[in-house]
Amino acid sequence: EFVLTQSPGTLSLSLGERATLSCRASQSVSSGYIAWYQQKPDQGPRLLIYGASRRATGIPDRFSGSGSGTDFTLTISRLEPEDFAVYYCQRYGSSPQTFGQGTTVEVK
Amino acid sequence: EVLLVESGGRLVKPGESLTLSCSASGFIFNTHVMNWVRQAPGKGLEWVSSISSKGKYKYYADSVKGRFTISRDTAKNSLYLQMDSLRAEDTAVYYCARDQPDSGTSRPYWGRGTLVTVSS
After folding, report:
1. Quick one: closest CA in A to B49, which residue?
2. Model confidence pLDDT, tens digit, residues B10-68
3. Is the CB of B112 inside 8 Å of chain A's CB atoms?
4. Size of interface A-B (CB pairs under 8 A)
């Protein structure tokens, strides 16, 4: 069974700090089919990154994705007030799709 | 512009059936895998079902296998999810999502979702 494990579960940071979110896969992800989503309360998921490192249209360049194989990272270089939210990684391009359990970025 | 619009969500009783629809536009519908993903209140994202671009292959999460049926209609550019024997734990926002094309790669797209509530 393919599993995505996100860490940490919660990240407590201050405005302007750097956030580093991890997503580890139980097996190698082909073609870098990893996406990252941001979700705020009462909103649907917003695509940030796809193909492990490609920013979706309109996403600020403080968001970046990296990684290959089984280890992937979402980095927010300097936290803005609107960045405090839940973040999910996703393996797409294969069935079943799989999601990580989410990382909450909260105000310290 | 790619647009996915879900509809059909409503309040139903346990054991009842419901069909969700997703209207797609802005791309060639029968060249992409399509998915349903759900999110129960206060929970994470859960993949529900996938269907290949021409409808030949269908996949289901264990939690819905035997109760839900995914289908697509190219002429109507629409994706469907027939949900039978609904349970309280099926309560969630259901999202329609576009996956990869037959050839090449592209970004995922999601609709805004439709709420299904299963309660007596």
Report:
1. A96
2. 999 999 999 999 999 999 999 999 999 999 999 999 999 999 999 999 999 999 999 99
3. yes
4. 57
Distance from CA of A74 to the nearest CA of B (A): 17
How many other CB atoms are found less than 10 A from the CB of residue A100?
A: 26
Between strands A10-13 and A19-25, the pairing is: unpaired
User: Whole-angstrom Cα distance, residue A57 to residue B92?
Assistant: 28
| Neighbour count for residue A17 (Cβ, 10 Å) | 14
Closest CA to A22 of A83, A108, A85, A103: A103
DSSP string, A39-64: E-TTS--EEEEETTTEEPTT--TTEE
The partner residues of B38 in beta bridges, in order of sequence, read B46, B94
Whether A45 and B45 lie within 8 Å, measured CB to CB: yes
